[in-house]
């Protein structure tokens, strides 16, 4: 039995509130709930729409919602949130309000860190029926070099100095979602580490996120990242011939690409997860059809019982690491539009929350 408690850091989508740009792009009052609520079952037995239970269709501008989320996260054994952070360059941010409220108010009193979701926003990501309508860029991800890197750093310095900010080796944890899409990431890392030291920090603990840890681990590390976050979500649904065939089949017969969660579970864990500088990811489910309709990928028949087994597999990989590297990520706390969420819904209630807690207790002991 281990006396240590693993760090379980859940990705957190700060989307659920109206914004000026979302109103312009998608219509007045649009939030991710718009996609979630209009989702329809696309085949017999397809669990859609997914309807939130305890927290309802919440608005993240409300502080009491954020407090309730933390209560539920603690019940699950989640030890911190990793907020998606959107910086497109030259001061252009999106969805920053919920995190800024957490920072300014000091509440909830719950550990956090940031993941820079460095991707261009394009309309095709969101098309409801899967028809690709071109690649109209709504917000283009730009890398503008030294001056912009500095502006970016100082926009977040208050967060990095916050006592709630999650640290590894005494350094703020900062994740880059697409490390290999960022041409000048080596200079960015060097510059930010220097700025950190000039401002009373010890530098950063940089983590690069990857879907393909086996082929990308060494590349990401060579770029200067301290560690890799491995999420194997696409392991058996993309980048092979069978996926291409399934994609053609799904478009021809108007059915999304389905993989049983029970089968997926075997592919979500791997040897690399035992390394001290690889942090694996737990995944309760996946269903992209609220956003992409028949062109979506999804897992079928995920249950709290299967998720508990999956969590035990992941936690078993990290339990023999040194205490300060017993870290796993959870994708995600509240990505309702992609079907990977832990918050209670009408079908399972707190089932997934209880499953994670039981897995932690089983693998790590109380």
Largest sheet: 8 strands, parallel, barrel
How many structural domains in the coordinates?
1
Order of helices and strands: EHHHEEHEEEHEEHEHEHEHEHEHEEEH
**DSSP strand count:** 16
Tell me the strand percentage band.
15-25%
Unreliable stretches, pLDDT < 50, 5 or more residues? 125-130
Which architecture per CATH? Alpha-Beta Barrel
Taking all Cα atoms into account, the compactness measure Rg is 20 Å
Question: What's the N-to-C terminus distance?
Answer: 9 Å
Strand order across the largest sheet: 1-2-4-8-9-10-12-14
- For the residues shown, what is the average pLDDT? 92
Task: Walk me through what this model shows.
This protein has 366 residues and is an alpha/beta fold. The chain has a single domain, classed as TIM Barrel (Alpha-Beta Barrel). The chain has twelve helices and 16 strands. The protein has helices at 20-26, 32-38, 63-76, 97-105, 146-161, 185-198, 213-222, 241-253, 261-264, 289-292, 304-318, 351-364; strands at 7-12, 80-89, 92-94, 112-116, 121-122, 137-139, 167-168, 171-176, 205-210, 227-230, 257-260, 278-282, 297-300, 327-330, 334-335, 340-341. Strand 8, helix 6 (185-198) and strand 9 form a beta-alpha-beta unit. Helix 3 (63-76) packs across helix 12 (351-364) and helix 11 runs parallel beside helix 12. The longest helix is centred in the middle third of the chain and has 16 residues, at 146-161. It starts with 6 loop residues before the first strand and ends with a helix.
């Amino acid at each position: 039995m281990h006396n240590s408690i693993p760090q379980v850091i859940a990705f957190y989508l700060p989307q659920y509130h109206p914004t000026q740009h979302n109103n312009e792009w998608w219509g007045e009052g649009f939030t991710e709930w718009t996609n979630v609520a209009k989702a329809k079952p696309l085949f017999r037995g397809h669990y859609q729409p997914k309807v939130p239970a305890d927290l309802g269709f919440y608005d993240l501008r409300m502080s009491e919602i954020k407090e309730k989320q933390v209560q539920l996260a603690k019940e699950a054994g989640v030890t911190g949130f990793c907020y998606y952070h959107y910086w497109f360059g030259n001061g252009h941010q999106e969805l920053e309000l919920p995190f800024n409220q957490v920072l300014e108010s000091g509440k909830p009193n719950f550990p956090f860190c940031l993941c820079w979701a460095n991707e261009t926003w394009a309309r095709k990501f969101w098309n409801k029926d899967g028809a690709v309508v071109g690649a109209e860029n709504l917000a283009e991800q730009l890398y503008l070099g030294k001056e912009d890197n500095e502006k970016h750093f100082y926009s977040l310095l208050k967060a990095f100095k916050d006592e709630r900010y999650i640290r590894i080796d005494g350094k703020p944890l900062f994740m880059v979602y697409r490390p290999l899409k960022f041409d000048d990431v080596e200079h960015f890392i060097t510059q930010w580490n220097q700025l950190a030291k000039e401002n009373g920090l010890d530098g950063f603990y940089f983590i690069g996120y990857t879907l393909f840890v086996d082929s990308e681990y060494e590349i990401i590390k060579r770029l200067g990242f301290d560690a890799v976050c491995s999420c194997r979500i696409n392991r058996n649904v993309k980048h092979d011939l069978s996926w291409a065939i399934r994609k053609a089949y799904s478009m021809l017969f108007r059915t999304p690409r389905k993989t049983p969660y029970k089968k997926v579970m075997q592919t979500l864990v791997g040897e690399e997860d035992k390394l001290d500088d690889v942090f694996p990811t737990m995944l309760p489910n996946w269903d992209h059809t609220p956003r992409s309709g028949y062109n979506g990928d999804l897992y079928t028949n995920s249950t709290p019982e299967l998720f508990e087994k999956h969590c035990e597999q992941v936690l078993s990989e990290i339990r023999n690491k040194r205490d300060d590297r017993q870290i796993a990520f959870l994708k995600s706390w509240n990505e309702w539009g992609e079907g990977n969420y832990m918050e209670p819904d009408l079908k399972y209630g707190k089932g997934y929350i209880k499953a994670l807690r039981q897995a932690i207790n089983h693998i790590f002991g109380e």
